[in-house]
Amino acid sequence: MKLFSRVTTAILVGLAGMGSASAVQAQEETVAPALARCHIDGVREWAQCATLSVPLDYDDPSGGSIELFVAVIPALSGNPSPDPLFVFAGGPGQAAAEYGVLVDAAFSPIHSGRDIVLMDQRGTGRSTPLACDASDVLDRDDLMAAIAKCHAGLGIDASHFTMEAVVRDAEAVRAFLGAGKLNLWGGSWGTRTAALYLKRYPGHVRSVIVDGVLPPDVPLLTSSAKSAERAKRLLSDACRASDACSRTYGDLDVQVASLMQKADAGELQFTGPDPVSGKPMDLPIDFQSAVEGVRSVLYSAPGTVVLPYAIDAANKGDLKPFVAGMAAGNAMSESMYLGATLSILCGEEVPRVTAVDAEAAGQGSFARDSYYRFWSQACGNWTAKRPAPDAFEAMAGDVPLLALSGELDPVTPPAMAEHLVAGFPNGRAITVRGNGHISSYAGCMPGLIAEFIDTLDAAALDTSCLDHMERPSIVTGLNGGTQ
Q1: Mutual orientation of helices 4-16 and 338-348 as an angle, nearest 10°?
Q2: What was the pLDDT predicted at 144?
């Protein structure tokens, strides 16, 4: 058997960004077809929620409809600005109305004077979710069979759960709310959604904030290996610069290469209690699992401080710390709706890359082409629709744009934000030192975002309040020693 409960969820968290898997608990107080008071987990104040009916297929509105859930967190001010902040969740496959924790951590300064709009994109949350439960499936073949079984049992055509449909849903929500213009925030894959909304409805966009940027003209499945390798080498450099770390672990690049070689040869076998459930486990860790065990931990800067310890222990025969790190990725990815993820990736990303492209792009990276291999196999059991050709064009425009990156990000490094901003004369890229994937909640960034939305002047932002940010110290032992 192979460790696919861990690897699948670790792969998913790779695109996920920050989110919460907690359920939205609506407490409707009216039967009128309008916004009704509700509660969003993680947000202290009451929200206003509604369920809209939108076409399953916008090209054939008579062919049935789906439910679309939207939550509005009203501004605290009695005289709010007319242009709300519209949040596009990551993944693909996360539900924005399950982003209560992010709203509280990153958007509190905005919330004081503007409404915040959370739309569960179709296929997630309470918007006709495409939820495929494969969390207990351990074998690769069994996992692919579970995906095929899920697809067959959906009872709805999954090919209509596209990015194009998501942005048309967002436009329907904007019209429903009567907002003339929106301030867009997109995180991780949500940066792609924000970019497509801007392309389709530029007249309805006042400003754009993208965090963990994946430009539409950059294929994820060829860029991911190099991005992961870059993040791993930054960690290796940090360890090499520390006497305590280098003395304890040696060369981390060599350590990772050794671990991948063992995994590829089938030499990694974990036997012991599951770090989450405590139930007995007897599972081999193959190459794909080992890659994601490293890559998924690199998303979080605090997580990286224990990664050298876990890799060193794994190479010495103790896999428990390594598997515990993978379990953390497992917990984070509970916010993903696998069917929605597949509907988009299988149409948007897998077809734009060949196996030859992916193999070439993976040269020199510890991850090789493992990311492509997984998703291309999974997509063999899923129906998806290709996007319009212009969906992959480089973005450009004069809308005020702020692009945020974490210096250590293993999937959307700062160069991607700089690439996107090149097409926006009123844009600015900001990199947060010592941070991983998603930076909107880091240090003083919430205040900077709020200032940008108020002034629309990215160039004037004083980012000196971020100068103290740096990677946390690397742990060199369970006794609490650090670099």
Answers
A1: 70
A2: 86
Q: Are 56 and 64 in contact (CB under 8 A)?
A: yes
Q: Which residue has the tokens 């890659």?
A: 291
Nearest 5 degrees, angle CA 136-CA 139-CA 141? 120
Cβ partners under 8 Å of residue 11, min gap 6: 292, 296, 371, 374, 375
H helix runs in 54-208, sequence order:
100-106, 108-111, 140-152, 163-177, 189-200
**What CA–CA distance (Å, rounded) separates 293 from 290?**
5
Quote helix, strand, coil % in the chain, to nearest 5: 45, 15, 40
**370 pLDDT band (50/70/90 cuts)?**
very high
Within 231-346, strands assigned E span 269-273, 280-284
Reported pTM: 0.91
CA–chain centroid gap for 478, Å, is 30
Tell me the per-residue pLDDT of 182-237, one tens digit each, with 9 for 90 and over: 999 999 999 999 999 999 999 999 999 999 999 999 999 999 999 999 999 999 99
d(CA 134, CA 376): 17
What type of residue sits at position 182? Answer: L
Helix (H/G/I), strand (E/B), else coil: 173: helix
- CA dist 360 and 354 (Å) reads 10
Residue 297 vs residues 11, 25, 116, 228: alpha-carbon distances, Å: 11, 31, 30, 11
- Residue 324 confidence (pLDDT): 85
Q: How far apart are CA 475 and CA 472, in angstroms?
A: 9
- Give backbone dihedrals phi and psi of 14, rounded to 5 degrees, phi first: -55, -30
